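Ticket #4471: structure export looks truncated?
Reporter: QA, pipeline team
Priority: medium

Steps to reproduce: submit the single chain below to the structure queue and open the exported record.
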Amino acid sequence: MRIAITGIGIISALGAGQQINRQQLLAGHSGVGSVRYLPTRHHAYPIGEVPFSNSELAVMAGYEADTTISRNTLIAAVALREVIADARLSTVHCALSTVNLINGTTVGGMDKTETYFTEWKKGNYATLHYIRDHRAAVHSQQLAEHFGIEHVTTVSTACSSALNSIITAVQMLRTGEAQQVIAGGVDAMTRVHLNGFASLGILSQQLCRPFQPDRDGINLGEGAAYLVLETEQNALQRGAHIYGYIAGYANVCDAYHPTASSPDGEGAFNAMSQALEMAHIQPGQINYINAHGTATPNNDASEWTAIERLFGKTLPVVESTKPLTGHTTSASGSIEVIFCLIKMAQKGYHYVINNAFGFGGNDSS
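Actual output as written to the record:
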């Protein structure tokens, strides 16, 4: 059973929508820069912010401009609005109420928690609902309600969340649990987000430089991307445009360290090799790898070791697109799957790999 990608929606530091992201990606332009919207005093670290205010995002997503909903939900809703239209899901032939949404996120409503937690602790219970909205599952439910989607699942596995959402979607389609699935991920920038990575000493004060000898850390980013997935048969029957197929996948856990990758790249190697095995293709058939490539000394050394171990001396094109968007954490996997599709269409690639590796060694390809 072939699983087709029939819709894409994206928003990142490069802009909102397929067209601008395609143009900026192929031109090699970066959206990483000085902090603009995040209320933080830590301006030494460049980040890849979505270039819109919350009120602008609200209008783009179909909310009132003065809505108090979280930035995470607003960013996700912009990408979801595009993917639904792109795949022609809201038509007489396809009711959104029958579609499954699988949403990957770590942030949830964290930005509102940061804003109102102190007041709540002082006894201002009028803001209690913002604290309750902190949970990732509540954020996903808000999205489902906004679009009239009845079946929703949340995946939260740090930086592999979006790829694991896609993997879950494919499994549901192959077992007949769903007919069409919207899958992907979102994370907005928050202070806990930025400060947490800074406390690990892995943020760069310059534009990140994946796989370069002088690399010194991550640029964080925010964004969202979603795919519509369905069986090839279903896609052909309704005349849907097919961007590509999910040929194989794997999710593994090397359990090496809470935040670091293993020096031998065991998790990355197993994820890539098992994905190839499922797809019934050989390493030499891969044209391009969109690497996790965070630009930390640890991650890049580990991932490159795994790539060389799997591909030997005949390496495909290996690239990290994180200097363009920043590391969008839970959204990175789905954003970069879309970047892979753009590269396939532009370069004529036939098989590509996208890697997304999360804390705790939760590695997906």
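Status: closed, not a bug. The export was complete when the record was re-opened. Leaving a note from the reviewer for reference: The first strand starts at residue 3 and ends at 12.
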